[in-house]
Amino acid sequence: MTDVKNKISYDETVDEALLQRFFADSTRMNIADEGFTDRLMRRLPEEVDTRCYRLYRLWTAAMAAVCVAVFFFVNGFQLLKLRVCGAVGGFLGDVAHAIQDRVGSLSLPASVSFPPSAEWTTLFHTSLMIAIALVVLGSLVLYDLDESV
Predict the structure, then answer these.
(1) HSE of 30, CA atoms in CB hemisphere, 13 A
(2) Nearest Cα residue to 128 out of 78, 82, 87, 93
(3) Nearest-CA neighbor of 136 among 77, 91, 99?
(4) pLDDT recorded at residue 63
(5) What is the dihedral sign for C-alpha 42, 46, 52, 53?
């Protein structure tokens, strides 16, 4: 049954005759709305007035200019930089703490003394953030190379 509905010709286009038969019943379907649809269709303009079209485009351009002006007025680049750096730094800090907790929970032999100091924690966080940043940047470069090919 699905083979009959989904017939495709040899050049992989849908069979037009099959589509015409399928939609034949619904092409001129009348809805009992006491002529509302016909009256509405007669009142619709054929195409948009050129003056209205220009006003729409002018309004869109004006609002885009206002948005750009507000962005520069509130120093948007600085706000974006703070938000992005804060989000990335917070995420990397959470990852570093999670890894540090996992590593800290491992039991080491008694002969190894490894007290976690503030210097070690800072070094660990910095190296982990650099490694994750390199992985992310490398992934972006590979993605861009893949998309450009």
Answers:
(1) 3
(2) 93
(3) 91
(4) 94
(5) positive
Where would I find the beta strands (DSSP E) of 5-133?
none
What pTM was computed for the model? 0.34
Q: Phi-psi category of 50—alpha, beta or left, where left has phi over 0 and alpha has psi -120 to 50?
A: alpha
The conformation of residue 49, written as its DSSP 8-state character, comes to -
Are 137 and 109 spatial neighbours (Cβ–Cβ below 8 Å)? no
CA distances from 22 to 51, 64, 73 (A): 42, 46, 58
Query: Which residues sit opposite 49 in a β-bridge?
Result: none
Distances in Å between the alpha carbon of 127 and those of 76, 90, 93, 117, 148?
A: 30, 15, 11, 15, 32
Contacts 24+ apart (CB under 8 A), 94-100: 95/128, 95/132, 96/124, 96/125, 96/128, 96/129, 99/128, 100/124, 100/125
d(CA 7, CA 31): 31
Q: Give 17-63 pLDDT, tens digit per residue.
A: 777 777 777 766 777 888 888 888 888 877 777 777 888 889 999 99
- The residue type of 27 is T
Can you tell me the distance from the alpha carbon of 38 to that of 131, in angstroms, rounded to the nearest whole number?
67
